[in-house]
Amino acid sequence: RLYGEAELLRLQQILFFKELDMPLDQIRQILDDPGFDQVAALEHHRGMLQGRVERLARLLNTVDRTLDRLTEDDMTLTDEELYEGFSTEQIERYKREAREMYDPALVEESERRVKGMSREKWQAVQAQGRDVTVAIAGLMDRDPGDPEVQAQVAGHHAWIENFYPCSAEIYRGLAQLYVEHPEFRAFYEKVRPGLAEFLSAAMVVYADQVLGQA
């Protein structure tokens, strides 16, 4: 069957109205109305469709943002994830002590860096810390200044710098903290008895011989 222009325009109007979820009976009544204005109807369709396009675009943007968060693994870490294994009371106490013991700007920089890490990055940093700690514990039969020990301490220093810039002075202070702070000391003693003292001594050597020369 061949359609004339008028029929094609009527068919187009029917399709537009159907797209707007209008029942066929109502569409027929509108199109058969002697006062039906085709131009006005098309302008109305255009406005309605434009509104729908804009709503769908917003929905699509929301879906894309959600997919990015889920697939790129960049969701914000919670305090529970950052301090896994510690109680809420311990977490708050550590934060308070850190601000009392260190330059507040340094503490803020550390928190900013960690909060900016993806879960994947944070897990990699945790693994890096565990690996270097175990490696140093395995070298405790050597002198703290032994080249192999110092190579591992360089890895420890690099791990620390995931959190904040670590100068010779800061690294010496951290070495002292490892033996003087009961919970830090207990953590390293749990890995291997004597590790806190050994690591602290090796860190001082690295601070003096490497960082102090920078």
Would you give an account of this structure?
- The protein is an all-alpha fold and 214 residues long.
- The protein folds into 2 domains: 5-71, Multidrug-efflux Transporter Regulator, Chain: A, Domain 2 (Orthogonal Bundle), CATH 1.10.1660; 79-213, Antibiotic binding domain of TipA-like multidrug resistance regulators (Globin-like).
- Helix content is 74%, strand content 0%.
- The protein has helices at 5-19, 24-32, 38-71, 79-82, 88-101, 104-115, 119-137, 147-160, 168-180, 182-191, 195-209.
- The model has no long low-confidence stretch (mean pLDDT 80).
Helix content: over 70%
Question: How many distinct beta strands?
Answer: 0
The CATH homologous superfamily name of the largest domain equals: Antibiotic binding domain of TipA-like multidrug resistance regulators
Order of helices and strands: HHHHHHHHHHH
Mean pLDDT figure:
80
Continuous helix count? 11
Major sheet: size, sense and barrel closure?
A: none
Overall shape: it is rod-shaped
CATH class of the largest domain: Mainly Alpha
Which short descriptors sum up this protein?
2 domains; Multidrug-efflux Transporter Regulator, Chain: A, Domain 2; Globin-like; mainly alpha; 214 residues; 11 helices
Outline the fold blueprint.
Elements: H1 5-19, H2 24-32, H3 38-71, H4 79-82, H5 88-101, H6 104-115, H7 119-137, H8 147-160, H9 168-180, H10 182-191, H11 195-209
Describe the structure concisely for a colleague.
By secondary structure, the chain is mainly α. It is 74% helix and 0% strand.
